[in-house]
Design brief:
This protein is mainly beta. 0% of the residues lie in helices and 39% in strands. It has two domains: 105 residues, Immunoglobulin-like (Sandwich); 101 residues, Sandwich (Immunoglobulin-like), CATH 2.60.40.
């Protein structure tokens, strides 16, 4: 931004004589080292709803120390704190109403983005700001999971030799965001570390009805259910206990007829 001022000087003498000088020129330009600052501290991280193209990370307004004559004129998204690099998954900042918004390239992806911005002004002044964090969809702090009121901590008791089917029916946890749908429910050991070897997981997910590996021996089996949501979010259920016991109505047979007498 440049302002050019052209003028002459008219000199008046006694007797009303005048003299007009040659034209002079003054050029006002913007410097390249004005400090740039954010008008406010933005909330970070910011959370936006899943599959909504109207929302994005709302950036603060940026101004120079000479904002009236040499205002900011460009905001660039970058993945680095001190240079321009690709910020994967993000669009350039766009002015929407009175705010600059940074939107994800794909608003149907449950994801977290960290980025910086380079703000430039007329004359060449520039500053980097950030990091800023944008969370889309199902992410930590944007959703709450709660154990279902219908959750049962007890499986269906079995007897040795019974069918392995339907040992436990799981009531999935509830979520505060409808777009955080369940991907899978996996039976894990009581410490939550590895899949259970006693209760089988389903081939098709999400699964809510589970079966035992076998009912050969009497035993007490404990496990938990690990529910996975989009964005890598998980919820671990309380402990579940089920039993396999010996029944009292088995048919008894002789292995071989004894010698008698």
């Amino acid at each position: 931004m440049e302002v050019v001022i052209n003028f002459k000087i008219k000199t008046t003498f006694s007797g009303s004589f005048t003299h007009t000088s040659a034209q002079s020129t003054i050029t006002l330009t913007c410097g390249s080292s004005y400090p740039i600052s954010a008008a406010s501290t933005p909330t970070s991280p910011q959370f936006i709803t899943f599959d909504d193209s109207s929302v994005g990370y709302t950036l603060p307004a940026f101004t120079t120390s000479q904002q009236t004559g040499c205002p900011t004129n460009q905001i660039q998204i970058t993945g680095s704190a001190d240079s321009l690099t690709t910020a994967t998954g993000l669009e350039e900042a766009a002015l929407v109403d009175s705010d600059f918004l940074v939107k994800p390239s794909d608003n149907t992806a449950h994801a977290q983005y960290t980025f910086y911005v380079k703000v430039s002004a007329y004359g060449g002044s520039s500053e980097f700001f950030g990091p800023f964090e944008l969370n889309v969809g199902c992410q930590t702090d944007s959703v709450t999971f709660t154990d279902n009121v219908a959750f049962s901590a007890t499986g269906n008791a079995k007897e040795v030799g019974d069918s392995v089917d339907n040992v436990y029916t799981f009531a999935p946890p509830t979520t505060t965001q409808t777009y955080c749908g369940i991907i899978s429910n996996v039976i894990v050991e009581a410490d939550g570390s590895t899949p259970s070897t006693k209760v089988l997981n389903c081939d098709t997910q999400p699964c809510t009805v589970f079966e035992l590996a076998d009912t050969i021996n009497p035993e007490t089996i404990t496990f938990k259910v690990l529910t996975t949501f989009p964005g890598g979010m998980t919820h671990l259920s309380p402990l579940v206990t089920t039993t396999v016991t010996c029944g009292n109505a088995y048919t008894l047979t002789e292995v071989s007829a004894p010698t008698n007498p």
